[in-house]
């Protein structure tokens, strides 16, 4: 998964666990796509300070994911739902219905 997209998912799932200041800086970087210099100028802090804060946030968010696996579960469920949608595009036969049943069982296990 691309780093920006991965960071976005991690922030979506765990961002509320960051401090308000961390969330603000992280949103400027990930959501608004501002450079380190632009963030530093906006907040009147050093570029290195922004860099260090973002690295700490990334580490913290990745640590939450390593413990809870919410993004991983979401991505697995998303892939299964996409596959179910693909399978239901035609007239499903018995093999297709069996695959849909297996996928829905997999989704229920993830939940």
State the helical fraction.
over 70%
N-to-C span: 22 Å
CA radius of gyration is: 19 Å
Overall average pLDDT: 90
Number of helical runs?
Answer: 6
H-E string:
HHHHHH
Largest sheet: none
- Global shape: elongated
Provide the fold topology:
Blueprint: H1 3-14, H2 20-30, H3 36-43, H4 47-68, H5 70-87, H6 94-110
Helix pairs in contact: 1-4, 2-4, 3-4, 5-6
What's a concise summary of this model?
It contains six helices and no strands. By secondary structure, it is mostly helical. The longest helix is centred in the middle third of the chain and has 22 residues.
Describe the fold and architecture.
The chain has 111 residues and is mainly alpha-helical. It is 79% helix and 0% strand. It contains 6 helices and no strands. The mean pLDDT is 90.
Summary tags:
mainly alpha, 111 residues, 79% helix
């Amino acid at each position: 998964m691309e780093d920006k997209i991965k960071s976005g998912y991690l922030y979506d799932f765990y961002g509320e666990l960051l401090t308000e200041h961390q969330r603000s800086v992280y949103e400027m970087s990930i959501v608004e796509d501002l450079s380190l210099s632009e963030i530093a100028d906006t907040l009147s802090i050093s570029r290195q300070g922004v860099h260090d804060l973002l690295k700490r946030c990334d580490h913290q968010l990745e640590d939450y994911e390593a413990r809870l696996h919410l993004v991983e579960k979401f991505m697995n469920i998303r892939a299964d739902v996409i596959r179910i949608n693909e399978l239901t595009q035609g007239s499903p036969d018995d093999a297709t219905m069996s695959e849909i049943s297996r996928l829905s069982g997999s989704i229920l296990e993830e939940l």
